């Protein structure tokens, strides 16, 4: 739970970048400032799915302005995430390295389902308390999220690669608004969304809510034309479609309530919306005040309904799904975090953020055998693949990749993770994890009284393990495995030395 007086959320969407700033009063968030810039980064992906230099520069320029406003905020007070465009971009690391430095805070790329979870959380917490079954829709620039939930709890979450920018670019490339183009775009959107029919069938929800830019843009135009405010109907969408076709091109759009920055992507947006309405039998879509950035704020506040960090639940869910031996995973985690705590005493980079780093090492330990469900042979490789491709609520893609590297490297040769060993923090986490796996090889609590793992110095790449006299005689197999482990590290830029007091 956040204990402070201000919070900020940054949402790097495919169409717009948004910054929400507010204060925390009696446990509730009150907005004090909201900044939005139409960056339209989703239109800046080239044929090879690389962000163009122009698209990257536009993003960096916007984040520089946001960063100036966030000067003085603590890391614990800000959360920044990126969505579909950067999920797709092959050169996202090039953009993100400079973007994070410019903003002054790390920017995490989140999975589609994590985006959906945050959207639902943001929408639900800004609606009156209720146990109604809710369908939440968010049509973004390059993806559309559909979520079913009850009250504040999401149940089914999915992200589809269809959105206002992507569809406008594909089906209205020259800005011509013809009936044929709209028909083709709607059919194509229906084909992508068709698999959603069963899960999101009208019998599964009581009320439908729409979030974010496309919903807001359509709702504003309909309200300005005299349609019921804060709701969208299929009749209203039909009316707007006829108006757009009659205007023939984007350049000729003259509609009250439509912002200039929305005209170029309204064709794709309304095509996707009509496809969703027809496919899911929506009569009325209520316009919701909340969205992704509000979900980020809820995470920063600490969701009272979540019983703690949602990532803990995700780890437990993955462990159950893949039949992990949770007792052994916890055993390895306890030993690994104990060893890393000792190493941290000589590592300033750990001390500044030790709690978070120990927690993530514990999660890797709990999931280190997740690949055994597929095959015992090379299970660490299977486990790494699972984690790199799993949708885990609360985790960014970068966090999941880091867990996958620890799982991949927890046994066997270190050559497969050698590039990652340049990261001091990850290397020391991996040393602790590999030692813990060895010490727990008999799948029972190891005898490690008197055992010490220390670093030779704050910048040293030498780690020394020592144990009490007689330990090697009592545990000869463990001692043998430790000697082999020391040899394995000789082939890297790190050194593990042993003082086994034989």
What does this structure look like?
The protein is of the alpha/beta class. The chain folds into three domains: 7-109, ATPase, nucleotide binding domain (Nucleotidyltransferase, domain 5, 2-Layer Sandwich), CATH 3.30.420; 113-290, Nucleotidyltransferase, domain 5; 310-448, Hypothetical protein af1432 (Orthogonal Bundle), CATH 1.10.3210.10. The chain is 46% helix and 17% strand. The protein is built from 20 helices and 14 strands. A six-stranded mixed beta sheet has the order 8-7-6-9-11-10, sandwiched between helices. A five-stranded mixed beta sheet has the order 3-2-1-4-5, with helices on both faces. Strands 12-13-14 form a three-stranded mixed beta sheet. Helix 9 packs antiparallel against helix 10 (266-280), helix 13 (326-344) crosses helix 18 and helix 15 packs across helix 18. The chain is elongated.
